[in-house]
Amino acid sequence: MHGGLLVVKPPGMTSHDVVDFVRKLWAVKAGHTGTLDPAAAGLLVLCLGAATRLSEYLVDCDKVYRAEITLGLATTTADAEGQLTAQQDAGRVTAEQVEEALAALTGPLEIAVPAHSAVSRNGTRLYKRARRGEAVELPTRQVAIHRWELIEFAEGKHPTALTEVQCSKGTYVRSLAELLGNRLGTSGYLSFLLRTQIGPHHLEDAWTLERLAALDGCDAAQAVLINPPKMLAHMPRVVVDQAAAERLRDGNAHETEHADGQAGLAAVVTRGGSLLCVAESRQVGNRWRLQPRKVFHWDA
After folding, report:
1. Digit-coded pLDDT (tens) for 218-276
2. What is the pLDDT of residues 24-39, one digit of tens each?
3. Which of 208, 229, 250 delimits the end of a domain?
4. Which residues in the chain belong to E strands, given as ranges?
5. Is 37 a catalytic residue?
6. Range of 276's domain?
7. Residue among 37, 62, 219, 299 flagged as catalytic
């Protein structure tokens, strides 16, 4: 079984729990392409069998989330799993103010990595230091917020803003919730998170664990997998003939006039529709040179 699997992660399970469920269900090698916090729900893209070698090309994809942010409250973890640390009346905040704040926080952004995260600092996970009550200088990272929109706003002493955010890899939406609260002159925490998209893959195409467990036999299981070329639908694609495929399969470069006219990584596919390799594409004169970076042998 080689391919991708779109899974709905329920709240309360870790991403590793979901991977382990699939491994045991089908006795197959599996890995994910980006975790979700235990309290969050939504899309996980899993790579199965030899397709686990594709995971690095999906980790870097942009992601889309539905994020509910509660204003006027703060927690130790910046999400619903933490302990309440502060509360104030934020009833003065309006939907218009939220929209203005979201617009101001769209674009390149520096965010702090949450204290309760798996990022290592001097060889120790931050969440372990936080649980011990240690004071740690939190690292920051540059991310890109491509789009952040208000979907629904509920007024009250602690108003909630349901938002949709499209962002680059490495974005902690919990940190965005805190930034939004600060921008509005109050506090805020992420009260619920649903991931709806990873690169070209969407939540509406994903399978629940219950539906996967109900599949009858390996043929039915294989039928729900995404083929390797479709897993890399976000990358430029080059189709090659048999002679070129043989050269590329042996690790040799191939020159072509058709590489989508883009420099960078490209998915190279045979005329039969099989993913042959991921290659580096660069222009040489009026042609494009494809240099294999990772070659796949699906029957191995």
Report:
1. 778 888 999 999 999 999 999 999 999 999 999 999 988 755 557 889 999 999 999 99
2. 999 999 999 988 988 9
3. 229
4. 3-9, 30-32, 41-48, 63-71, 73-75, 84-87, 107-112, 120-121, 124-125, 140-154, 160-167, 188-198, 201-202, 237-240, 254-256, 264-270, 275-284, 287-295
5. yes
6. 235-295
7. 37
